[in-house]
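Reader question, answered in our methods column.
A reader sent in the components of a multi-part assembly and asked whether the whole thing could be modeled at once rather than chain by chain. We filled in our standard form and ran it. Here is what they sent:
COMPLEX SIZE: two components
ENTRIES:
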Amino acid sequence: MKKPLKHSHAGSASNTTFSRRRLLQSLAALSTLSSGLAFATPSTSARRLILVELAGGNDGLNSVIPYTQKRYYEARPVLAIKRDELVTLSDHIGLHPKLAPLLPAWKNDDMHIALGVGYPNPNRSHFRSSDIWHTASGSDRILKRGWLADAFEAQESADFSAEGVAFGSGYGPFLGSSQSLVLDDPVTFAKQARMMRPAPPQPGNTALNHVVSVRRQIARALDDLSVVIDARKKRKIKGSDLHKQLTIVSELIAAKAKVPMYKVTLKGFDTHFHQPNRHKGLMDDLGTELGALRERLIESGHWDSTLVMTYSEFGRRAAENGSRGTDHGTAAPVILMGGGVRGGFSGKQPDFPDNDDDDLAFHLDYRQIYRTVAKQWLNAPAAADKLRSFKPIELFS
Amino acid sequence: MSIVPNLSLAHALGAIMLALTVFAQPANAMQPEEARHLLHRTGFGVSHSQWQSIIDLDYDAAVDKLVSEATRGQTVKAPQWTDEKPLWTVRQSGWTTEQRRELRLNKRAKIAELRHWWILQMLATPTPLRERMTLFWSNHFTTQYNKIFAPMLVFNQHEMLRSHALGHFDKMLFDVLQDPAMLLYLDNDKNNLNSVNENLARELMELFTLGEGNYSEDDVKEAARCLTGWGVKRDTGEFRILNKRHDARSKTVLGHSGKYSGDDLARLLLEQPATAERIVRKLWLEFVSLEPNESVVKIWALEFSKSNYAVDALLKTIFKSPQFRSVENRGVLIKSPSELFVGLMRPALDGLNPEQIRVRVSELRPGKRLPQLFRNAGQNLFEPPSVEGWPGGLEWVDSRTVLAREHTARNLVVGLADQKRGSTNPYLISSSGKNSKGRLITHLNAVDPVSHIPTTYTQQRMLLELIRDPAVHVK
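And here is the structure of the entire assembly that came back:
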């Protein structure tokens, strides 16, 4: 089932937050429609997911802040964000001041925050817990495949040049996918990929066939991605890693690359000490880049068909430690953005524990969000079916 | 099934004719293709001197020679600091930022040096099988440097595994359970009478011996009690048992009860058929094919445990088996980055001593960055991705690593080919004369290239074509 899009190019009547610029864009889109039928109905395969991994364990409590909870200030005498500095979203939740660039999205109902997200028996190891998030496993099971690996029906995925493209660090949620790519550096990728020699279709045994099919996947993606990558060769992108990654992603989207899923990574969240400035820098990077990404995708007319989702292997402890930092914790918020989302909150902000040694309890299993995204956004039954025991959230309007 | 079905008949016949004319065979000598398979599977590429040393033997004698030589084997000299004491430096609370930084940089330099040293070891060893087995065991008894940050402990563990590489698995297991790097890596230094930490006990049963499904959760809890108090001396980094932290009461593991220690636990695990089977199955994946034959695994496992876990005897059984020798199992495994890179380098370094090899490697353009190149290809030495080690098999090759593998292979081979010996390309020194090209392919590739490489190509051009062909990835 396709969900009606809030800001679909056809422009639904129920839409109340149509900015003037959006209207112009919709008209522009409509005019392209007259010349081609490609976007007559935004097909599911035209939808995209951008995952933003906050690697190291983001301090959820200082990102999405329960500013009315007295214990927040008591347990974090050094780290707590002052009431008059934060960005108020509701009568009990605020954002880190450096996430202010997300405010336009919030006001436009383009932003959805799932509160208190986690899983039972949380694991506090970076590696293990990020594996858990990447494979959609419980803490007691080790799975080998990413939750978005080979997510689509074969027929549909035949149209993709790559099912997923991951930037920065490993395959993550695409682990084990036969049709995904890792791009550490797109220009080097293209250079090396062009040196590859095409090989005959069926060289023989399983091992050789595997090598050949991996090469073929690269060649297929390269054809599609090279327009953007080649243009990049001349203009080096300046700025943070996240800026570079999201710039390439939005250029690929604007160039209509046939890639439904992207994953980017912002590293450095393991703030055991000297947290205030480090976390501030990270929030600045995240807020600025996600805000800019939205602007660019609105500009190119792809915002309504894009869903952005942040995640982190865990949140941090409720109370600060003795080194102006925080240690590994549990539940944390997940931020989702896009023209199609329902603005507002899901779940419930966990109550602050009375004891400083305790953690936040989770109220929403992260796999509930995964299932919602896989089924309702991507229409990827292979990924959604594995999670059918998890109740979807109300993510889309 | 033929490995290279697209090879034309004439091409294939030509290859056989060439093989026959070039390698004049004594009566009992093995077929050149068997020698090629044996050497590629058990080593890193094929060097000319290695080839010469077995080509006149019959097959079984060649296996015996390879395996028994690998139980000995000289090593490249370890970095000077590896015999220092204490085994680690513990950060003191009063240290300045500068002191802490210095320690951090010092450790970083040391682990980098160790990675480099390990690669040199693989390049220079006269007995590559020993290095292959060292790699195998360090991927079985894994340790991630990133968790313990103690270069010396990592080095000692590495040397311990190398010393047992073709020895006895039971002895190795006892040593592993008393190895400081392992005890720290799996948190056994936090496993005490009053607060049990199950990490080591669990991985011991799940990964190092029995395998999943062969023990219960209660067995893990009880096994952890056997290991309480086994840890590391804070000041020296050496193994110690703290009796007051050891749970001396009775435990019940796998249906047996007694006041077991860690050694007793190891003995119990070694009595289980599942332990030998697990090791044999892993060796099958390493040396035979991607699909272990369970009934053969059981037979070999029984033999293995009856031989007091003699690894060298097991390897001889494996290498002499019809499964290993089967033509259908040639070229069906994917080389690890170590096997690929070292295998492409060794033929050009044949006959040089370790110091000469060190110099040649350091003069390569990517010479100093060799460990990083291994990492880019998915094998950061001393840093497997998890306690399960590198998954290996087909997973060595994916869209990221395949590019890194081919890029690095090209750089290394081109770089080494430029380092003339006398006036000759070092890859060609040993293969001059008749059919030098055919021999070059045999030495660098476990199976013939998938694409047709015309014999009219120059040797240099042929080298480049070889490493662009998918067959370079398999062994």
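What stands out: Chain B touches chain A at residues 1-6, 290, 331-334, 385-386, 391, 394, 397-400, 402-404, 406-407, 410, 450-451, 465, 468-471, 473-474 (CB under 8 Å). The longest strand of chain B covers residues 230-232.
Send us your own complexes using the same form.
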